[in-house]
Write a structure and sequence with these properties.
Blueprint: E1 5-8, E2 13-16, E3 26-29, E4 34-39, E5 46-48, E6 55-57, E7 72-77, E8 80-82, E9 95-101, E10 104-111, E11 114-121, E12 128-137, E13 143-156, H1 158-161, H2 165-171, E14 174-177, E15 180-183, E16 193-199, E17 205-209, H3 210-213, H4 224-228, E18 241-251, E19 256-267, E20 274-276, E21 279-280, H5 283-291, H6 295-313, E22 316-317, H7 324-344, E23 359-360, H8 361-371, H9 376-388, E24 399-400, H10 418-433, H11 455-468, E25 513-514, H12 515-534, H13 538-558, E26 568-569, E27 575-576, E28 586-587, H14 588-596, H15 605-616, E29 618-619, E30 623-624, E31 627-628, E32 654-655, H16 656-668, H17 672-682, H18 690-693, E33 701-704, E34 715-718, H19 723-735, E35 738-741, E36 744-747, E37 757-764, E38 767-774, E39 783-788, E40 791-793, E41 797-798, E42 807-814
Parallel strand pairs: 38-42
Antiparallel strand pairs: 1-2, 2-9, 3-4, 4-5, 6-13, 7-8, 7-13, 9-10, 10-11, 11-12, 12-19, 13-18, 14-15, 15-16, 16-19, 17-18, 20-21, 22-37, 23-24, 25-26, 26-27, 28-31, 29-30, 32-33, 33-34, 35-36, 36-41, 37-38, 39-40, 39-42
Helix pairs in contact: 7-8, 7-19, 8-9, 8-10, 8-19, 9-10, 10-11, 10-12, 12-13, 12-14, 14-15, 14-16, 16-17, 16-19, 17-19
The structure holds beta-D-glucopyranose and 1-deoxynojirimycin (NOJ).
Amino acid sequence: MAIFGNFDDASREFVISRPDTPLPWLNYLGQDEYFGMCTQTAGGYSFWRDAKLRRITRYRYNNNPMDNDGRFLYVRSGKTVWNPGWKPTRTKLDAFECRHGLGYTRITGRKDGIEVEQLMFVPPNENLEIWKVTVRNRTRKARKLTVFSFVEFCSFEALNDMTNYQRTYSIGEVEVEGSAIYHKTEYRERRNHYALFGCTRKIDGYDTSRDAFVGVHNGLHDPKAVLAGRCTNSHAHGWNPVGAHQINLSLKPGEEETFAFVLAYVEQGELPKFDRPFVMNKSRGRETLARFSDLKAVDSAFASVRRRWEELLSTYQAPKVPNEHLRRMVNTWNQAQVMATFNLSRSTSGYETGIGRGMGFRDSNQDILGFVHMLPDRARQRILDIGATQLSDGTCYHQYQPLTKKGNAEAGSGFNDDPLWLILSTCAYIRETGDATILAEPIGFADKPGSRDTLLDHLEISIAYTMRNRGPHRLPLIGRADWNDCLNLNCFSEQPNESFQTTANKTKGDVAESVMIAGLFLYASRDLAALYRFLEREADATRIDKGYAEMLSIVEDQAWDGAWYTRAFDAFGKPVGSKTCEEGKIFIESQAWCVLGGAGQGNGRARKALEAVEKYLYKPDLGCALQYPPYSTYHLELGEVTSYPPGYKENAGVFSHNNTWIHIGWTLFGDGDRALAYYLSICPSAKKDHSVYRSEPYVYAQMTASQFSPTPGEGKNSWLTGTAAWSFVVASQHILGIRPDFDGLRVDPCVPRKWKGFTVVRKFRGVTYTIEVSNPKGVSKGVRSLVVDGLRVAGNLIIPPSDGRTAVSVKATLGA
Ligand code: BGC
Ligand code: NOJ
């Protein structure tokens, strides 16, 4: 079994020990407005705010070799040319290490006694990235060598950049001043921004033309200038502008030299654009470089990246959790992934090109559930931004562009689960902060600009929308699809070029219904009723309870299939996810949401539903498949779900996101052993064979090929998945059980019986709680005693102190 790396938990790093990982293993840099992606071989690209409209460096997806563009350093020592990150030359290294940390990646490569370390990060609140480079002569001889830097610029609009060469090959413009290469394509016309690639050290040459540096017939693995040993000081006029610096070094035995490259995005603002014709006013760019000209500034910027992460993570730390996988995920990596999903939704990863999807309505709302504890103010703003894209009849634009905050008309609306997720994110925010003022924010509606409708109006409209749009079984209409984007019951697509997401060929007599939405409605209604009770608005709470009771009885009357909940009813009123179906007999989502929504209580159905999941869908070490049996043929009336080969994606792949809801389900039944076993079945850190799993061991992938596929266990589409937020909710709130509630912090663990105890340090509404949980009787659930700062408290709720204490110590004992 090949080993590709391991966790260094103390430094919160994943250490990759060989560059040829089974797939590129990615990390994210930046968390404000400037973002970069960086793989273990320094592959990836950077952008400012919007990966489609402000792409800084170029990246070719679907490339061969995979992951072929990036932040490269070439070293030429004698006749040998190599990269510390191995790629693009793939010259065999004597030593290689890549440390992916939170917000930074450090790659170190050694060849023939020369070691080069490249540390890449984005300082907080800066629109730039820094590569701090240290070159060490590890030999006893004096050595002369040349280091070249290399990035390929993108003409900012990434889709145009890769499709419209008749224009882009004639518009590229650059300027060079000292070590600074300015990429100013389209700056003469409508752009008021540029990119800049500088170096803190004196340089010995540069290139800005790709044809000059790489060559028309060469590749990044054998760039002309590097082979020749020198740059040509070229100026790009059109074609492909790049940034390359040449640095000649002479190092005594044991000597090292450190310098840094700065790649920045600069907005010109109100400043005059030009000093004289064709010469841009570079004062902002010069200031930017000047700030980092001293390596002390570089080091202190890096220290602030680390400090900031420690601060963010300090809101929830569980240092003594007995299981190492859950411990490292909950303390470090799961939170890092949640940050990436919050920032980027589903737009930019190794699988999302940044030119396709914007921010998703349902996705971003769910991302908040795992993020809100870290930066509640940013969550607040996000909820208001997303809410404002909702339309006044309750429908939602399915996606919006982060730069404009406007709904994307092309992606359309009509995904009927969308409106309800806004209730979950809003309640999560208020539970975390106690700040109900968010409800009164007048955000208006996308189709009523300037209106004063509040966020609370939105929540009500979401409930009303679901109630109003129901079908023959009085269950919610599904519209284009529900959470399962591929259950397209009105699509009826016969044309291969139609999008499953936007086509709805059956618009008249819309009858297809979703049981998953019904379950989600139950859950959202309970949330909203609890919120009204917190606001002491009993009449409103009771009104919401009534809707809940009505939907609950419909679910029980119409959606119980005998041993599990039916998934949906199609456009002909036929059940989907029922024992009467030939394939797709049982789906995971309706089991999960009916149980989470409180259905199946008192009649044994909830437990049966979870047991059916275990029987038909669950495999230890793999997780739960989305449904069973997979569809073997395309069904016009079911849509994209049947378009995937069996065992992949929504067609019975292990779709990690929905697994997390089942984990919560088991904790509701107090089954801590199952909850942890299921949790570990999809946990990337617990994956045993990386050659089989292939994806990053430190973050969740959207999907793992299931037992029904030819490649079981293969993870795909890592990083940007709702699994991040939900699995943090599972681990932190339901297994470890420290859960924010409207009136305080609830202590409600559900753990394996053999766990003796653990500690959680939780910052909540300005108070740090150190909560020691012990389990002397070997139970899974149930707090027998709760002692808060020495005082015994009834129940399991910690009410925030009113006497100004900022540190509170809690002892919780589990037991019957
Ligand atoms: C995928 C879904 C995804 C949808 C979004 C589909 O092709 O299978 O997982 O939600 O695209 O556009
Ligand atoms: C990924 C999408 O981003 C998400 O919105 C959807 O719920 C799942 N796929 C399931 O189809």
